[in-house]
Amino acid sequence: MNSESGATELAEPNLRAWLTTIGLDVEYVRGAGNTLFMRGDDGAEIPVIDYAGGYGALFFGHNHPVITARARELLDTGAPVLAQFSAHPQASRLVLELNRIIHRELGDTEPYYATFANSGAEAIEAAVKHAELDRVSRLSAVTGELEAATARARSAVLAGEAAVDPGVWQRLGVPRPAGDGDAVADLVAEIARRNAAQTARPPVFLALEGGFHGKLGTSVQLTHNEGYRAPFQALAAGARFVPRERPEVLKDILAEESGTLLGLAVTGGGVRLVERDHHTLCAFLVEPIQGEGGIRPLSEEFARQIQEFSAAAGCPIVVDEIQSGMGRVGRLLASSHLGLRADYYVLAKSLGGGLAKAAVMLVRGSRYRQEFELVHSSTFAKDGFSCPIALTVLELLEADGGRAYTLALERGAALAGMLESVRAAFPDVVKEIRGRGLMLGLEFHDQSGSADPLVRDAVASGTFGYLIAGHLLQAHRIRTFPTASAVSTLRFEPSVLLTDAEIDRLEEALTDVCAILRGRTGKRLAIP
Ligand code: F0G
Known about the structure:
Structural class: alpha/beta
Bound molecules: ligand F0G
Helix content: 40-55%
Radius of gyration: 28 Å
């Protein structure tokens, strides 16, 4: 449907061909609120209810009138979009406003400094780069201190003011020289060799199984799905994936990633060995509710354990709020519901109001490295179009005493209630409803034993959820998708404008899908 017949497709042609096989190859020509209009065969517009919501980037829906008015005003007044290396009052206001809301949600006053980016994955990369700059800077401060102390100890020995404790040679396995001269040269060389081996160890990131943090060079290594990650393993440092709700694993990882940095120090007339603990853990990445991994909320208990581990190990937490943040679960930060406090927050998706590509990475004041500003930038980030749009989005969120947050919870509860009633009617088909606010998922039971070969084949090829998505679009004019790394879960991330009538339409559609999957009606999925 909708393909320009005969035209050669060079823009991801294989994806396009696959979309055709499941009826998803439609062209949308207009969007308003929760509705996308697709072009019908006769050229007329066909309304489709959008539950995919730009994968969660449309908290205020398609083309929200206040946001589009702001965009028009910017264009009409000739607001400069690209004026790099100048004052950016809109960006400054945006970050102050983000701080004001974050302080309210965390009950704290520590500032968060911002670095801008153009996409979620790019902002994650910025957070990771900042964390690595911080890690290597701290490491070099420690090794610098140890080297200076070692040099002082060596001078003291050479000046005859101190003697090396016999245990030091033994501990390092260095033979004790017999003659005169620089008696500690071998010892110092061995310490330098061991420290170099420690500091050369690459950083290790912690991320949760099922997590998704983007698909760029570094961020894809923090994304659990092996299909996305494995081919690019050599491009960036790897992550260690922590099973969800298994805090005991963290202790083992810390032990495995720990090492010792060495130095010499003079106390009294003796030179002794100084040992400083060190580990390679650079940052711990967490989504408060895993999105792409199947709409899986983090428990408060596990969030607390992650926070405790991070504090004890000195490993900063990067909370990825790219999908869960910006009001979707009734707060700016979904993690603030959990009592989780991050060293880094990353926001994107809905920050741009569905019009601008905007992302921001926020670093807690006590961790912030101002030199990062000199080593990280992008031509398009912090631009004069996306920053005012993002400010308008924050104004909409905060208007009427934060009515949008309350509405997200209220509309989310209505949607979740309907999904639960579908589950109750089809407990043999629907396994679980998960999520919070307007970030909800419906997981189907395993359909690999289906009597319908179409369904069985889709399960076998890992495309089951897309088959259902094709049916929902073709038979019910409803748009949603499975979560890409957990294709038995459909995700529902509509805008806060969601109406009861739209919920009813989804209920009808899901009831139809469940009845078909149950296999007693003789009806089949509507696939071209
Ligand atoms: N982090 C999270 C939690 C995300 O959900 C996404 C994207 C990203 C990072 C990357 O952001 O696409 O702007 O570079 N999630 C999409 C999804 C792809 O399917 O949920 P991006």
